User: Fold this.
Amino acid sequence: MNAALAIATARRRAGLSKRELARRSSTSPAAIVEYESGRRDPTVGTLDRILRAAGSSAVITIEPQSPVDRDRAARVLADVLSLVDAIPMRAAARSLPYPPFGR
Assistant:
């Protein structure tokens, strides 16, 4: 869910200014600006309070994620590992660039 878009849409549909929405939702105008710009995410409770102040509400649905295609994931992993094997390796340094401790 995009909280910034939800708040801005609800506010515009209600014909409210950011200042008026802030007053109705008991928050600061600066917070509304931060939420609508996406620079800050409101908590679920705060989002609900702001949307209700604008005469809207959010409906949250919980859906299972699509199952992972293990065969495809295995092929992708094999491709990545093959690519890593193809990258030239730099030879290890034969000596340390600094003298060992104790000298």
Observations:
- The chain has a mean pLDDT of 90.
- Residues 3-53 form a domain with the 434 Repressor (Amino-terminal Domain) fold (CATH 1.10.260.40).
- The CA atoms of residues 73 and 90 lie 29 Å apart.
